[in-house]
Amino acid sequence: MKARTRCIVLFLVLSLTVGLFAGCQKADNNDNVSSDEKNENGDIVIRVAVQGSAIADLEVLTEAYEETHEGITFKLEEILGDYTTKLLAQVAAKKAPDLIWLSDIQVPGLASKGVLTDLSEYIDINEDEFYESMLDCGKYDGKLYMLSRDYNHVVCYYNKQIFDEAGVAYPQEGWTWEEFEETAEKLAVPSNIAGIYERRGADVNLSWGATAPLIIMGLGGSLTTPYPNGTEANFDTEGTVEALTRIKKLVDSGALRNNYKDDVGAFENGKVGMYFNTRSIMKNITDETTGLGAENIGVVSLPILPVKHYVGAGTSGYAILSSSAYKEEVADFLEFTVSKEGQTVFAKSGNCVPIRKDMIDDPAWIDSVPGIPSEPFVTNFEYDTLQPCLTIENENAVTNFDTSWRNALYGLLNDIKTPKEAAEYGQAEMANILKQ
Predict the structure, then answer these.
(1) How far apart are CA 221 and CA 111, in angstroms?
(2) C-alpha radius of gyration, the chain, whole number
(3) Which of 112, 341, 347, 349 has the highest local Cβ count within 10 Å?
(4) How far apart are CA 54 and CA 319, in angstroms?
(5) 155-313+392-434: what CATH class?
(6) What is the pLDDT of residues 366-419, one digit of tens each?
């Protein structure tokens, strides 16, 4: 195996900001070609920008690819701090990498600036072989700019030990939101101090875009019109006020964890009975030294929301910079990542559900964490919904849109605003953002 190189990319002085790039022209691809780097052996060196926990997953894939492909080596460059801003700084300085790791919500902002390659010109895949929602995560304006690496939608994890101690039945597939509320309230354990809980019934991630906005809408509320990429704020509605009221009551009763306060500990610490998240956190919660252990964890699909059901879906993946001198070589690697071979390699990590529908029953991922049922991770995919995000070019506006509903919930769950006031506040912020 070829020697591997990881560069830590540090920007000691970075005066460029997201706002600066938000107003810039689209990249001139002919004037911004990356260097055609090669190593001492004459191998093509593909530079890859990556962040945090995505490094280990990418190393697994690049190492497997290098074993069967001569003349190619990868140089992983970890970007610390504000990932998007520093990527754009590299583009502006004509020092951009060839391949980048991205989360789905970063695609519109970067694609709209012309710094990503339209993959349809370089990649030949049959889209019918993949989960449609995951391919949609990488699209902007009808074109594919990021190739998703795995399938993720939100499920409900539960702590069997807590359920057993409380004498509460485990949740079953097809359960309703009302059943979830009742179950969560039974699991809550109050302390001797009013309003403080030693244990909460559930953590539904009320600060996460893949759950909180969809729960609000599933309870009858709304964010924008039309959804999800609306042009008009629609948060101050009777349905939203009722949804916020319901959420506040659940937090006050101990049923839901308050993600906007210094609340009880995490699910893996045994302080929460249920937890909404994806397969990507499997290692964290099953690790015997830091988590609960697989034998103590159950998994079930999300409870059916009463007004309209949504299941938060999302992913991350890889994109080719428009400035790369090695588009065809990088595209070949991307095709490998979604092939059966590449998906099998990644699936063995335990955190991955393959993006390929023909691997729905594949033991590579099912057996990667023994004792954990696989069905909830691939059922109800017809309800998959990408988290709300704006596809406008103003990066500040995109970020602030998420901040608007989070600020509304912060005021509500810190007893600063009533449900009506929180809805009005969120409406005003969203309306202002959509004018930008």
Answers:
(1) 30
(2) 22
(3) 347
(4) 14
(5) alpha beta
(6) 999 888 999 999 998 899 988 765 545 555 666 678 889 999 999 999 999 999
